[in-house]
Amino acid sequence: MELAAGLAMETSKVKTVVRNELQDTSRDLQWIQSQASLLLYIQSTWYPDARKAKVAKLDIQTQATAHPVVSYNEPAVAMHPGAKYPVDKEFSRSAKQ
Prior knowledge:
Layout: H1 2-46, H2 50-65, H3 76-79, H4 89-96
């Protein structure tokens, strides 16, 4: 009986310690978030376009990393040397003559 009571007491102590650590961690996280929000607010007052620049930067990064193979600025032949443009037979005959 004493063993069970001792085990229950130790379990209670562990639960209390874990609960206190979680509360401390939660408090720390809330403080960090409030500081980050404050910093963003201050930055936006100093640099009004800072938010727009960050959004634009994220947009550019998303476009750049969207698909590494596809390039809309280069023709398929440049990326795939074996590819050929479709050539009209009539056009190619008249060009040779």
